[in-house]
């Protein structure tokens, strides 16, 4: 049987890599002033020894309670903190409330969302880059990296801040596309019970919580629906 940690239940099965998969990972790109927080927990996965295996770890960003996360110690750069994972046959509906998205949900061994409040605290303690990884149904993998990733506070609506793009999944996050969903960079986060997008309706009521404009060029938080314009 699994064990409950921090309000989430974890099963002892290994990580499943399934077709139609999205993963968001963060990597600290500036030196940390010390490697731990309260009780000696690392502030993110980049503070874990680089020869450690990928798996479940407890981190504690500055100002945050301890967080259970998946640390990717295999991808180039190592020490990536996985903050989102969604597979095509996920059990998560992603149609969660503002407060649920705020504090996170899911199972770090499978599909989950770290939580907007913890993304805010994590990305404000240092400089981070983000890697969006998408695997389509033909098992083709593409990624998009941005050299800055930051989520602002709740009072601001948890808006997304992205830096310069690099990758082979076309940049549909920081480039404006009038005929599609507009842009995602600098957009506030929306949920079914807090509409902060630029569309006439509520994009999140049909899909899931995300940084919508009108509505999306990229959407990774939906049940059975992973979308990256021009690719997946």
TrEMBL record:
NCBIfam families reported in the protein's UniProt record: GGGWT_bact
Example GO BP: blood coagulation
InterPro entries: FIB_ANG-like, Fibrinogen-like_C, Fibrinogen_a/b/g_C_1, Fibrinogen_a/b/g_C_dom
Key words, A-Z: Coiled coil, Disulfide bond, Glycoprotein, Secreted, Signal
Name this protein carries in UniProt: Fibrinogen C-terminal domain-containing protein
SUPFAM superfamilies: Fibrinogen C-terminal domain-like
GO cellular component: extracellular region
Every Fibrinogen C-terminal domain range: 36-232
Keyword Signal attached: yes
Signal peptide positions on this chain: 1-34
Localisation: Secreted
